[in-house]
Recover the amino acids of this structure.
């Protein structure tokens, strides 16, 4: 009797996360955090699930208990581990951090760890559409009274500038400072502004934002050095509102400056340009004897591309429309096949498509497409010209980087 053996195959589909958040509360002397005399420790952040790629991690302090003596604690992050070191004889009693882990091409974390001496800095960045940033304290060293504030002073297309206030008689007591910068698009945050307070302090109630995190990084401290420096933050959610409070448990009355920000867990999607108008002309033209096979003009920049190669160009807001002029040398007996992106959301028929036959009465085909964008953002393009084709791809930065063909012309 023949036996039939049935095999069942199970395909394990790995589910990855792209964003996560949490807090780390174990840097406490009651848990063996004996942070003095060059004590050092490396800790690992535990995520709620698996990232496909190593995420960028942004951490900021929300609690500390440090003495009114010459004190230093250092801090740094490598991938999803962070390192803390206390270099002085004074005991650092506790530190707590909130963290965000993000695997996404729309954000960037810049690290400035253990800066000694503190000073203004300029950093390069690689984001196309960054126009705002969040800065948070990660470490500090002082030998007396301090009064400082970190602030973002300028963001350009390729750099970000950070300044620190320099109060006479106090700035020299700030020996070391560390911070991280989270660069994002303003489309992805609600900035409630700077909050200046002395603990104990409780904020006014705010509406609880859906799919957003409330982050409250410390950016400035005014401290008299008269007593132990202590601070603890707590968020309180009641129904559809939230408040946050900062408390102290020692006699000193420092002043703190924090930034209150809602950060979206669902970043705005960058989409390709869509062709809204298109004019095509065909004619017999002998005005130019050595016309290139393809010529691409971009009217908003006066750029012209007519040689074989690959080129990159960027357009910055507030440009909303981009107009191309495409000239194609039409060779008798050949077909010129063209397509132009018309609908990002359409499951089919995403492109306008045309097929023109070249004959003795046509030697030049001209295309005049106008592309528009859904959101006012910066745009980056790659233009490729070969002997038989020209193509414009838009580079899109979302959770991953992709290229999207917005126009393509081939001679067949």
């Amino acid at each position: 009797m023949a036996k039939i053996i049935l095999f069942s195959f199970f395909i394990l589909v790995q589910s990855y996360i792209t964003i996560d958040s949490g807090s780390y509360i174990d840097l406490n002397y009651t848990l063996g955090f004996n942070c003095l005399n060059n004590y050092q420790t490396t800790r690992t952040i535990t995520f709620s699930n698996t990232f496909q790629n190593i995420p960028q991690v942004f951490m900021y302090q929300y609690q500390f208990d440090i003495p009114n003596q010459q004190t230093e604690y250092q801090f740094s992050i490598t991938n999803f581990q962070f390192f803390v070191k206390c270099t002085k004889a004074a005991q650092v009693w506790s530190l707590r951090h909130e963290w965000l882990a993000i695997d996404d091409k729309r954000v960037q974390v810049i690290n400035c760890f253990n800066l000694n001496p503190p000073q203004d800095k300029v950093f390069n960045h690689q984001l196309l559409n960054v126009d705002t940033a969040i800065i948070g304290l990660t470490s500090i060293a002082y030998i007396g009274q301090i009064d400082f504030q970190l602030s973002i002073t300028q963001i350009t297309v390729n750099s970000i500038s950070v300044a620190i206030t320099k109060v006479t008689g106090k700035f020299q007591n700030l020996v070391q400072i560390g911070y991280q910068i989270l660069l994002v698009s303003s489309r992805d945050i609600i900035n409630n502004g700077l909050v200046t307070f002395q603990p104990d302090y409780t904020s006014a109630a705010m509406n609880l934002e859906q799919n957003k995190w409330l982050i409250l990084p410390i950016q400035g401290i005014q401290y008299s050095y008269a007593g132990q420096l202590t601070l603890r933050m707590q968020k309180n959610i009641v129904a559809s509102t939230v408040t946050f409070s900062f408390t102290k448990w020692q006699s000193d009355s420092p002043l703190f400056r924090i930034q209150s920000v809602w950060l979206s867990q669902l970043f705005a999607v960058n989409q390709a340009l869509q062709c809204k108008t298109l004019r095509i002309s065909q004619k017999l033209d002998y005005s130019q004897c050595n016309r290139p096979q393809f010529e691409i003009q971009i009217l908003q920049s006066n750029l012209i591309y007519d040689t074989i190669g690959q080129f990159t160009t960027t357009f910055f807001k507030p440009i909303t429309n981009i107009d191309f002029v495409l000239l194609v040398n039409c060779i008798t007996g050949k077909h010129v096949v063209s397509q132009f992106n018309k609908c990002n959301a359409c499951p089919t028929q995403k492109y306008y498509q045309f097929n023109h036959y070249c004959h003795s009465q046509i030697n030049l085909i001209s295309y005049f497409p106008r592309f528009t964008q859904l959101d006012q953002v910066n745009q980056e393009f790659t233009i490729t010209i070969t002997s038989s084709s020209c193509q414009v791809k838009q580079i899109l930065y979302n959770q991953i980087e992709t290229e999207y063909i917005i126009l393509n012309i081939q001679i067949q």
About this structure: The longest strand covers residues 56-66.
